[in-house]
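Dear colleagues,

As part of the handover before I leave the project, I'm documenting each prediction I ran so the next person doesn't have to rerun anything. This entry is a single chain, and its sequence is reproduced below.
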Amino acid sequence: MKTPYIALALAICSISDQALADPISQAAIPLQRPATSAQDQAPGFIEGQSVSGTTRNFYAREHAARGPLWRYHQADGSLHDSHSRENWVQGTILNYSSGFTQGTVGFAVEAAGYNALALQQGRARVAGPNNRTLTHSDGDVLAQWSKVGLANLKTRVSNTTLTVGRHSVDTPVIAYIGNRALPSSFQGASLHSAEFDTLSFDAGTFDRVSPRTEQSLSKFRSEYGAAGVETDRVSMLGLNYQPLQSLTTSLYASKVDDFWHQYYVGALHELGDRDTLSLSTNLNYYKTVDTGRKKLGEIDNDTYSVSLGLTHQAHTVSVAWQQVNGNEYFDYLHETNGIFLANSLMSDFNGPNEKSLQFSYVLNMAPFGVPGLKFNVYNARGWGIDGTHYRGSGYDVAGMKGESHYEYGFGTSYAVQSGPLKDTAIRATYTAHRASKGQADGSLDELRVVTTVPFNLL
């Protein structure tokens, strides 16, 4: 598959060079300090405070296309198989943020309360426990629950901010995940420094995660590793650099104690003019190796994705190739979105030695007079999954030999452009996944409708 993929990339580049009328600048950007710092502009603790939030209506219905995929307890304690499950939750966030105090060193605080209301409470329909609706161990749904989602103190000097407490983080190796009614967050300390216009640094260390659908804090575990294997510490360091007007790059490293060291390299390049023809090229690469007590066994994994997107006015056509080189899953931390790979969809297409290819199309209705409205469709296929050479105990892959799967989906989204509901987002998607017998994701269909309404109180 590699040869035609490279040929396609070269062909698209050639077409772009001929068709571009007003190309995106490829000029270098000098590395320089900003004229003023964020702390110089600090409004004051009270003067800069705000109270805002969101309320999200999350509905998802899944149906197993073959055998039952879920189980649930009836009130008498008996256990039953189910071909479907339905989750409907209203998640609301109320956030208070102070302004930074004035002076050379500024201080600020942030706190957010999270509340979830279960609109679907039937045991058989929810088929819990799951990571969408909070239930007791027997599957009985909690009608409503609340927790402190964020609580932190910030200290800033110039354009460098230290945050301590429970907060959101968004990097390629540890990132909050917001694809449910409520997002995850992390407890620890992080540093973000942007002392140059085109160069920023991130560092952090965390000992707990606040999951999307739990009230308590949890230790870290991996998304695909053996159940019950946990760790107390995740640390990361990284930088983001924009050397050209058209090019952004990232380099990150993380250590998950007794699990792995993980290294990430990413680059995004833009070429051309979207009104005529533009090409977007996105590269993501992860190297993962075991460390410490090797709680997940031996790990030696190289995984990468390359995607090309060709845009002409309202239309974007993309192709993405992804490959896992390793006898275990490409893995990341549970309750995080630390997987910046092109083919991370309903399935992550991250099985041992898996290759995958995705084609997608997006229609942006803004050029047709309907800004904020978009449609998308995609198809992805993965094959060559082989875990028979794995000799560790951390991953259940030994039975995978020549497994394959495919996934397709379509959806629409709309963002309100003005008025009292400005920035309200509505998204509806339908996704179908079909898998061979030994592929772990199973064969199912999902309909999902999510509406997110932001609000400001102060």
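The domain at 2-456 is CATH 2.40.160.10 (Porin). The longest helix spans residues 2-19.

All the best with the project,
I.
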